Amino acid sequence: MSTGSALEGLPKDLVAHDPAEGSVTITVDASVYPIEALYGAAYIFIDRCYVLIDRPRGGSFSVSLTPKATAADEALRAMVGEFANELLSQAWRQKILEENRVILETVTTQALAGAMGPPSLDDLAAFDFSEESFEDPLGIAMSWEDKYKKKPEDKGASKPEGG
Amino acid sequence: MRDLRFHKDIYDAQAVAGAVEVYNRFADITVREEGEHRVVSVGGKTPARERKVALELANYALGLTRKGAVA
Known about the structure:
A: about 160 residues; alpha+beta; Alpha-Beta Plaits
């Protein structure tokens, strides 16, 4: 675990600075930031930092960030701030994903089914056309004969004269 | 010797093993289990080399874990 000082301007109980290693360790609440959010945020930083995630106790995660290039305290503070923002963004993204998972899967499935192309002759032969599968308020699916067939005469109506 | 502690709930076993396999050629690396962690010990010719290899190994393991999570 990290030892040493706090960075000025950052909460001491959440951010620890290890001057010997040049690293900072950020502690986050696991109930607020799921592990998927940590993966996402950490992965974005691996081009400029060495990242190590740990679980010091059940309810929290710790993320150790060691810049690849030597960084002054000001740069470390900025990096911590950027990581916190990215972590929040990833957590929010994960939340949206979970809330809309069913919709996303449904739309994706329908898109893939449509991309499979028209049904084959074998598919049509196996299809059951006997059931009423959809509503047809405009009568588009009706045959011409059914749509324009003569209606039975109303016995109570009078015939027009001279017709 | 420099130790890296990979929590089992966070880093896949395959990801850690994959990272060790890649960096084994650059340092003397051993792996052991300690409770909830897999501890990877990195030994090198110099402390600077140990540090460099260990940190790069950690990033690689994170990348493999992330790749497994996405897939």
